[in-house]
Each structure stands twice: as C-alpha cells, then as structure tokens.
Write a structure and sequence with these properties.
By secondary structure, the chain is mostly helical. 74% of the residues lie in helices and 0% in strands. The protein has 4 helices and no strands. The N and C termini lie far apart (49 Å).
Length: 95
Amino acid sequence: MESTGAKADKAYPLLSWKTMRFIDRYEADVYAAGLTLTGSPEAAQDITETVFITLIKKGIDSVTTQEVLGLAYELSIAKLLELRDRLPKKQVCNA
C-alpha cells in the first residue's frame, strides 16, 4: 500500500517539506485510528487522506495533535455510520 505522503508527493509535487513532514509525523496514528474504529483498511485509507486534505487546506501551522486525532476519530465514526447504513436491513417476523 502506498503511503499518503507518497500519494501527496505525486499529486502535489510542490508541497513544502514542512507539509510533507507534517503528513509523515501523523500518518501512522491517523491510519491506526481509522483502522481501529472501522476495521476496514480501505476506510482507514480514505479517512487518512481526508484528514490531511482537510488540515492542509486549513493550514498546518496552528494544528495540534489533538486536532489531528480528533478529526480522524470524527471521520471514523462518520464512516462507520455510512458503512452501517449500507448493510441490508433485517426483516422482523412477528410470528
């Protein structure tokens, strides 16, 4: 699996070294949070990419670790709800 930093480097070759260091610093923790909550590697990767896109757009200069992980958990819960809604509904039989 290609890391978010490597994907970002290909997609945005002009990202600063500071931004790339920011991604490298938090990527494993964000991915682990997503994987722990959703149990899905694909969902965890989507969450990881969304977290970094969101934070880079916001500006990384004032971002704290708490904000990074908070956003990761928030997106993980949203992804869980989305996955739950895709499950087939159980039929209740009143016999």
